[in-house]
UniProtKB/TrEMBL annotation, chain A:
<feature type="binding site">
    <location>
        <position position="106"/>
    </location>
    <ligand>
        <name>Mg(2+)</name>
    </ligand>
</feature>
<comment type="subunit">
    <text>Monomer.</text>
</comment>
<dbReference type="InterPro" id="IPR043128">
    <property type="entry name" value="Rev_trsase/Diguanyl_cyclase"/>
</dbReference>
<keyword id="KW-0234">DNA repair</keyword>
<dbReference type="InterPro" id="IPR022880">
    <property type="entry name" value="DNApol_IV"/>
</dbReference>
<feature type="domain" description="UmuC">
    <location>
        <begin position="6"/>
        <end position="191"/>
    </location>
</feature>
<keyword id="KW-0239">DNA-directed DNA polymerase</keyword>
<keyword id="KW-0548">Nucleotidyltransferase</keyword>
<dbReference type="InterPro" id="IPR050116">
    <property type="entry name" value="DNA_polymerase-Y"/>
</dbReference>
From TrEMBL, chain B:
<keyword id="KW-0808">Transferase</keyword>
<feature type="domain" description="DNA polymerase III beta sliding clamp central">
    <location>
        <begin position="152"/>
        <end position="268"/>
    </location>
</feature>
<dbReference type="InterPro" id="IPR022637">
    <property type="entry name" value="DNA_polIII_beta_cen"/>
</dbReference>
<dbReference type="InterPro" id="IPR022634">
    <property type="entry name" value="DNA_polIII_beta_N"/>
</dbReference>
<keyword id="KW-0239">DNA-directed DNA polymerase</keyword>
<feature type="domain" description="DNA polymerase III beta sliding clamp C-terminal">
    <location>
        <begin position="271"/>
        <end position="392"/>
    </location>
</feature>
<comment type="similarity">
    <text>Belongs to the beta sliding clamp family.</text>
</comment>
<comment type="subunit">
    <text>Forms a ring-shaped head-to-tail homodimer around DNA.</text>
</comment>
<dbReference type="InterPro" id="IPR001001">
    <property type="entry name" value="DNA_polIII_beta"/>
</dbReference>
Length: 411, 394
């Protein structure tokens, strides 16, 4: 089998770059994109390279960032605009190959194995892709190239982002010299906890992991141990899958509350219903139902973590808001310790298609199904706040406010 | 150590002593074990109660739903099973006792209990000393007054259980559906089970008082399943059935099986059964079963296990497809087809469950549309009826 050529295209300071492209007058100013300063979400979502040079980093508190770089222009996020630009970039990438997998809002994989006769070597394609994105959206892109997704990702994260060309290629010939000296925590798939475990085994670099006996890793972590070892050796079999959404395992929403909520009837219940509605609406849009409902909360005090996360499995799958809400409510009443709550999650998993449904003698699901889809259609046509549940208009409700946002930030 | 034991033995009187053939003991222990659960709130119920009386040995096992009493006579059909030296009773840890007796080396087992309830089990070269519990602390089984007794042949009862028990619900969301609903009227016993997606119903005539009438008797599906396992249908025996407010008792010559009844009203299932039909087909049970079974091979990944069904001129087509695996078409010849053309989708599992419980060679299936339940019945037999709700596709 011929070696594949995979590109990971990463957008530099994506939100900030879009803002700068849309506002040429900001070209030479440091720009920070930050959530609504009046609410808790006042953290740095993106900082342009000029601001980063001054030490501003993502997820810094806004006031911290402003101390480091007082003259920075602070812009509110416009999530819809970023989504639109990301889609535009997907369109650009699809001019080079039909195998494009959006990996996150600012990262996309492309398989250009079959495009080389048309567009040249992978590195040439990378240059053309970069130029096209810059030209048509004003965003600066970086490309990692590899024989598989993992190497393309590592090439991009650790080399393309740091060199002048913004392009780097990793393959079996140079992983020993380039990738192996990197600390093991830098490897894709190794989080802080796994890094601790590995370091305890004396594995401090990717190279050491690559040369560690495979059986021991397998014994310790099973299939995951093998995947880590393969990654370290530059082996990865996962394909670039065009529709990542089909393999979606769960649909979940979490909401960070503007203040502590403690009253179940008047406050928490409202949020559970709103989250259930969002989760189910998304499930309906994706054409899926779920068997498993999970919910949880986190307390206000980050130093002494409180809260829970529990799940329950239903006999029949659902994407009906009230079904999910009732299960979430039951779980909450059972496992919540009564302490103030600052963040609530509702999740629907174990998904299956909603195009087939076993009919029941005693339960008229038809009617409930229609209500959900009808509400969705109204929202699609007249906007997300065109129809909301009455209880969301009470003081605790967040639906009206969230209707103006994407991912917790203003559109 | 041996000395100490022996000296102690002098102080303790014999509380019970008998010997028994191993096979008979194992067989009966297995029966009562069906009722013993390790998860019980009453610790003594993790044990088996053993009672030796002048006419034989009784074993008892129980959990909150089922209690089973199994009797071993001293002799039967000129075969000697047990001899009693001293009558008495003891409760022994069920799991351990059952494992031990299965593995004992000789064909005879001696069991001897002293007044401290230390139980010595010897067989061939093997000796176990188990700590027993006081049988007085074992809960009494429900007292059932034998007013109205129904009689059903053992093999028929097992049949009825097999033909209905499979359709009970496995979910506790609606507890009453985890049972089989029995109604007795005019000398007929009707059994119905449904998990809300399919329904199985069987009616038999029974030997009972003409006036005996029982409604809404809901017996846990699990109880019936266990009962069916221990009933021996080769014996040609009859089962006596006694029903009370909260319990049902099944009695054979040597066996008493008590089950709790489920609370709550069983839904009226008569109204679910369609009375008219728009498409009627008659075909071979086996041919359809095998075709569905094969078609379901490609329908396994979806939980619903859906196959598509449509009528052709003088046959039906069953098909299924999986995006990843491929597709399958099956054709089954019809004996007859009356009424409208039909396309319908349903769960292969429900269909297989129903067909595999119909003995008749030919069945009639009556449809009243793609979104309505359809009825499966043996051509010649009105006593059995299977109802399946289709799968709706959007």
């Amino acid at each position: 089998m011929a070696e594949k050529a995979i590109l990971l295209v990463d957008m530099e300071s994506f939100y900030a770059s879009v803002e700068k492209a849309d506002h040429p007058e900001l070209k030479n100013h440091p720009v920070i994109v930050s959530g609504d300063p009046e609410r808790r979400s006042g953290v740095v979502l993106a900082a342009c390279p000029l601001a980063k040079k001054r030490g501003v980093k993502n997820a810094y508190r806004l006031w911290e960032a402003q101390q480091l770089c007082p003259e920075a222009v602070v812009v509110r996020p416009r999530m819809q605009r970023y989504l639109d630009v990301a889609m535009e970039i997907t369109d650009i990438l699809e001019e080079f190959t039909d195998m494009v997998e959006p990996y996150s809002i600012d990262e996309q994989f492309m398989d250009v194995t079959g495009s080389q006769r048309l567009f040249g070597m992978p590195s040439e394609i990378a240059q053309k892709v970069k130029a096209a994105i810059k030209d048509r959206t004003g965003v600066n892109a970086r490309c990692g190239i590899g024989p598989n997704k993992v190497l393309a990702k590592i090439a991009c994260d650790h080399f393309s982002k740091k060199n002048d060309t913004g392009i780097f290629q990793l393959n079996q010939n140079n992983i020993k010299q380039c990738m192996w000296p990197l600390p093991v925590g830098a490897m894709f798939g190794v989080g802080s906890r796994m890094e601790r475990h590995l370091r305890r085994l004396g594995i401090s670099t990717i190279g050491r992991l690559a040369n560690y006996p495979l059986d021991i890793l397998k014994k310790k972590w099973g299939i995951n141990g093998q995947v880590l070892w393969e990654t370290a050796n530059g082996i990865d079999h996962s394909p670039v899958s065009v529709s990542s959404h089909e393999g979606q395992k769960a649909i979940g929403h979490a909401m960070t509350l503007p203040r502590d909520y403690q009253n179940f009837e008047k406050e928490i219940k409202v949020i559970l219903l709103e989250l259930s509605e969002e989760v189910c609406s998304r499930a309906r849009t994706s054409g899926v139902m779920g068997y498993t409902v999970s919910t949880g909360c986190q307390g206000a005090n980050n130093d002494s973590p409180a809260g829970f996360y529990r799940q329950t499995t239903l006999v029949n799958p659902t994407n009906h808001t009230m079904d999910v809400f009732h299960e979430a409510k039951k779980l909450f009443l059972k496992f919540w310790d009564g302490q103030p709550v600052r963040r609530i999650t509702v999740n629907l998993s174990h998904l299956c298609s909603d195009k087939v449904r076993q009919i029941s003698f005693f339960d008229d699901y038809e009617l409930r199904r229609e209500i959900g889809y009808t509400m969705d259609r109204i929202k699609q046509r007249y906007g997300p706040d065109a129809i909301i549940r009455a209880i969301s208009l009470t003081e605790a409700g967040q639906a009206a406010d969230r209707a103006k946002k994407i991912g917790g930030h203003y559109k | 150590m041996q000395d100490v034991m022996n000296s102690n033995n002098h102080d303790t009187a014999l509380a019970m002593k008998f010997s028994i053939t191993k096979d008979k003991l194992v067989e009966n222990v297995n029966h009562v074990m069906k009722a013993v659960s390790s998860k019980t709130t009453i610790p003594i119920l993790t044990g088996i109660k053993i009672t030796a009386s002048h006419d034989g040995i009784t074993l008892t096992g129980s959990n909150s739903d089922i209690s089973i009493k199994s009797f071993i006579p001293l002799e039967e059909n000129d075969e000697e099973y047990a001899t009693i030296e001293k009558t008495g009773s003891v409760v022994l840890q069920a799991r351990v006792f059952s494992d031990i007796v299965k593995k004992l080396p000789s064909e005879f087992v001696n069991i001897e209990v002293d007044s401290r309830l230390i139980t010595r089990i010897t067989s061939g070269s093997s000796e176990f000393n188990l700590n027993g519990l006081d049988a007085e602390e074992y809960p009494r089984l429900p007292l059932i007054e034998e007013g109205n007794v129904l009689h059903v042949r053992t093999d028929l009862l097992k049949h009825v259980i097999r033909q209905t028990g499979f359709a009970v619900s496995t979910s506790e969301t609606r507890p009453v559906l985890t049972g089989v609903n029995w109604n007795i009227q005019n000398g007929n016993l009707n059994c119905v089970a449904t998990d809300s997606h399919r329904l199985a119903s069987r009616t038999i005539s029974i030997d009972a008082d003409e006036n005996a009438e029982y409604k809404n008797i809901v017996i846990p599906g699990k109880s019936l399943n266990e009962l069916s396992k221990i009933l021996d249908d080769s014996s040609g025996e009859w089962v006596e059935i006694v029903i009370t407010e909260s319990q049902i008792l099944f009695k054979t010559k040597h066996l008493q099986f008590y089950s709790r009844l489920l609370d709550g009203n069983y839904p009226d299932t008569n109204r679910l059964i369609p009375t008219e039909s728009k498409t009627d087909i008659i075909l071979s049970t086996k041919a359809l079963l095998q075709a569905i079974d094969r078609a379901s091979l490609l329908a396994k990944e979806e939980r619903n296990n859906v196959v598509k069904f449509r009528t052709l001129e003088d046959s039906i087509e069953i098909s299924s497809q999986s995006a990843e695996l491929g597709r399958v078409f099956e054709n089954v010849e019809l004996q007859s087809l009356e009424g409208e053309e039909l396309k319908i989708s349903f769960s292969a599992k429900y269909m297989i469950d129903a067909l595999s419980r119909i003995e008749s060679q030919e069945i009639r299936i009556s449809f009243t549309g793609a979104m309505r339940p359809f009825l499966i019945r043996p051509v010649e037999d009105e006593g059995i009826l299977m109802l399946i709700l289709p799968v709706r596709t959007y």
